[in-house]
C-alpha cells in the first residue's frame, strides 16, 4: 500500500538514509530528485534543530521595525553596567520609574543584554509545540519498516572474528511494538518479503505501511540475481 509522505517526512527519510544507513549523498540526492547541496543542507538543519529544522524556512526579514530604539538600548546598557546584578525584570522596573513610556518588555531587555554581551544567554528548552508527532491514534494503523546495518556478530571463520549482518525491522507506529526483527546476511527484497509475510501471519494486516526508498522496498533496481 502506497503512502503519500509530507515534505518534512520525505526530507527526514533522506537524512536518515545518510546518517543511519550511511548511503552516499549523491545516491540519496538522485533518489529524491534534488541536488547534493540540498541533501547536505537537510542533514545540517536536522543536526542543528531536529525535525523542525526540516520544515520550509520563513522568508521574513531579519530586522523588525518594532526593535528597540538605539537610545533605549543605550539606557538599558548604561543601567546594567552601573548595576551588574540587575536583571531584565529590575531594569524594566527602573526604566518605568524613570518615566520611560512605554517601558520595554522583559524579553526585549533580555535580548538587548545578550546582543551587547552584558548577560550570558540561558539555555531554553524547546517548547513542546516545536516537536512534530506523526503517531497514529491506534495500533495496526501504520507499520514502519526499515533495514539497519552495522550489526556485528561473532564468526570464527573471518580474520577479525566478527561478521556484519543486517537487521530487518518493523515497528507499530502507535504501540511502538516491534513486529519484525529479522537478522539476515543480505537484505534482499525476498528476505524483506519473507519477514513481512511472517509478521502479517502473526499479527494481521496493518492499514498502512511506511518505508524509505530503499531498493529492497521499491524494487526500482530489481534483478532476479538479487531478489
From TrEMBL:
Residues 123-227 form the Integrase catalytic domain. InterPro entries: Homeodomain-like_sf, Integrase_cat-core, RNaseH-like_sf, RNaseH_sf, WH-like_DNA-bd_sf. It holds the Pfam family HTH_32. SUPFAM superfamilies: Homeodomain-like, Ribonuclease H-like. This is Transposase. It comes from Pseudonocardia acidicola.
